[in-house]
Amino acid sequence: MLFAEPVCMSKLCFKYTYVLLLVIPLSFILLFLIRRDFIRFKNKEEHAAFKKEKRTLRTIIFILRFLIFSLLLIAIASPFMLMEKPIKGDPTLLILADNSTSFELFDKTVTSDLVTELKKEIPVNINYIAAGEQSAIGDGILNNLQGDDSILVISDGNNNKGRLLGDVLSFASSINSTINTINIHPIKSDTVVTIEGPSEVIIDSRELFKVNVKQIGDEVKYHLQVLLDDTLIFDESSIGTKTFNIERAFPNEGYYKLTARITDMQKDHFSMNNVFYKTIRVLNRPKILVVGNKDSPLISELDKMYDMVKSGTMPDDLNPYFAVIFDDVPYSNIQSKMDLLTEYVSNGGGLLVIGGENSYERGGYKGSLFETLLPVRIGTGEAGNESDVNIVVVIDASSGTADYIAVNKALAVSVIDSLNKDLKVGVIAFNVAPWEVQKIAPLRDHINETVKKIARLKYDGQSFFNLGIAGAYSMLRDVGGGKNIILITDGKTTYEGLRQWTRDAVTSAAAGGTKLYVVGVGEGRDDAFLTELASLGNGIYFPADSSNRLRILFGEPTDQEKEFLNKLVILESTHFITADLGLDAVVSGYNFVIPKPAARTLITTNKKIPILVVWRFGLGRVASFATDDTSKWSGELLSRNNSKVITRTINWVIGDLGKKKEFDVKVQDSSIGKDVEITLVSPIVPRLKDLNFVKFDINMYRALVTKKEAGFYSILNATYAVNYNTEYMKLGMNQEFLDTVKLSGGQVFEPNDYKTIAAEVKKLSRKVRMEEINLKAPFIIIALILFILDITIRRLKEKNVVLS
């Protein structure tokens, strides 16, 4: 139900808040009924004598019965309080020691020294988790959890198998197990190399590959060589952790082998991670249909990268094409073949619609079947009346964000300061309950007061995101105009169940017409969860370093920006199209569109005009580009860096480059000890020695193979790489692990903090558990007492007893 989320007012909470709304009709019903006589009299004389006191009696009866029914409704709403209940625990400390290969970089005598010293203060047990090249740290912790206990994990926190550490630590917190760790420093040095970049590319397209060299321990000199097949393409000496960018074009179809090798290190504990292998599959230019009558510079450039087929009209068969591009085409040219186009996109075809003087609002798209395919509605995209926009800024004031209070407060102030001062803005903070910092009112009337209130916020308690969202939605529910929530948080919670409650709260708010924008804060923030929440709330996720992009949506252009009123701005930087994209362009014109709720707006102008909006339609992908093909409005998109936005958009709508093949083999690069997944598209069942293919769809088969040595391998003419075991990839102390320990309620100690560790374990043996205290009974008892009082008053009046 819409109001079924628990809502708290200070310490008092209600499970079913919608029941409380019945108090309003109840008061009217009582007023109607009280006007009738509830007291019977023996004769008319007594009745006449009583008339003088009738009005007073009605008032008393109304108040009593209103209180009775109100108390009963409160009881039905299931009131409860979240109370901290002390629990007497066991002061025994369990030490879980990492015994994996990657931990060889650290001094293992730290464990024995800790055990020796701590046994002087408290009982200590020790178990070893992880072994060899399998660092199942999460599983090791989970297997040793008992509840209401203290655990000290001595590990680098690099988990390469089993359950995720964050999930395990969240579960530990939910059963009152405290997980602490030691911040240890490596005593041995190692250098590791990896390669990042696309696995599939189009022939002759120029692609970027990142060769990452990470050094643990001492920074030492090394020599890096990168080979493409057998040709040396990079040769350089350096020192320290660095990333080397390599751009390359591939002239022929097939597989290329990329190898990165580091040598000449004076100190290097592991040698197996000095070489990294990567395969690049180069595919022929995909066939793309361009519908339109214009010859633009952009289309001419794209013709060099893709197999472009140009046509003034849409053909009867779209199956040969990976994607269809409509270049400034009016609806009248498409209308007769809408069924064909809808089926094509629904079955996985890509669609890109480029604007211009004959499309969108000028091309008759509004209200057409074509508009249903698009991620936008046709209409005015100019900013409306700012006074009709309402925003509630929600600040996570839990203890989990206490480590970066100054950053959190500064970010909240920055967000509020970036908003247009004509907007109506309110502020809520939350931990175990939400509380109002500022009512919704024009921002210019309270911005200074609000900033001071934020500066005085105290950070404590757990993160009940769902209550923060519900509190904000409660403020927005009855206002007119646009409804928006800006949530500022790290996304970390110690209660895993709250994630689903939060999803439900966001979904309920979205159903009520409220959009959720999320600003991530903190080094250990949960980007995946925060992105999911923004998507559920039909909004956008902004990592902290890009939060100022909120100004594009809700702010005013600066004086400098006013000189370029149509400057393109990346609004969402986490999408495939816009990730790490440099964009510096101004457009002189655009079409007017409004993004649909389920769409993602990736690029706008600095005047909030949507330019690039995308979504999925059935199995296909659709992109709306609301400016032209560079022939008149957007010529600056032809530069090398800016043009990537078009090519990436086309590559995104295409999706799988091999989807048109009748016979195709896909093999992902893997590592030693991990399964290599082989996917085969074939009309017949394949039969290969040592491979067992299993059918999972029409003409599609899957098999698994495991390799014991690193290098390049081939199967069915497909090449793939197997790299060193992932145990040697993530080395050194995992900072995210340390942050997660803190956020789950544990502490990070230094190796020689024996006294502090012992004192903390003794303190934690007296634990506190959050419990719900049911408060139905007091309200029912009070209602019963008032009911008896009501009966007594009426009986006394019926007997003409005069009350003093």
Number of discrete domains: 6
Strand order of the largest sheet: 17-16-18-19-31-30-29-27
Structural class: alpha/beta
CATH class of the largest domain: Alpha Beta
How large is the count of helical segments? 18
Which stretches of 5+ consecutive residues score pLDDT under 50? 38-44, 381-385
Task: Supply the CATH architecture of the largest domain.
Answer: 3-Layer(aba) Sandwich
User: Which radius of gyration do the C-alpha atoms yield?
Assistant: 33 Å
Span of the ends, CA to CA: 49 Å
The percentage helix is 25-40%
Oligomer: single chain
Which fold name is given in CATH as the topology of the largest domain?
Rossmann fold
Q: Provide mean pLDDT, rounded.
A: 84
CATH superfamily of the largest domain: Class I glutamine amidotransferase (GATase) domain
- Report the count of strand segments: 40
Residue share in β-strands: 25-35%
List the helices and strands and how they pair.
Layout: E1 7-9, E2 12-14, H1 23-34, H2 44-76, E3 79-88, E4 93-100, H3 109-118, E5 124-132, H4 137-144, E6 150-154, H5 165-174, E7 178-182, E8 190-196, E9 200-202, E10 206-216, E11 221-228, E12 231-239, E13 242-249, E14 254-263, E15 275-283, E16 287-291, H6 297-302, E17 307-311, E18 323-327, H7 338-346, E19 350-354, H8 369-373, E20 376-378, E21 389-396, H9 405-418, E22 424-430, E23 434-442, H10 447-455, H11 465-476, E24 482-489, H12 497-511, E25 514-520, H13 527-536, E26 541-542, H14 550-554, E27 568-570, E28 593-595, E29 600-605, E30 610-617, E31 620-625, H15 644-654, E32 664-667, E33 670-671, E34 675-681, E35 694-697, E36 700-706, E37 711-715, E38 718-723, H16 735-743, E39 748-749, H17 754-764, E40 766-774, H18 776-798
Parallel strand pairs: 4-5, 4-6, 6-7, 7-39, 9-15, 16-17, 16-18, 18-19, 19-31, 21-22, 21-24, 24-25, 25-26, 33-38
Antiparallel strand pairs: 1-2, 2-3, 3-40, 8-10, 10-13, 11-12, 11-14, 14-15, 20-28, 22-23, 27-29, 29-30, 30-31, 32-34, 34-36, 35-36, 37-38
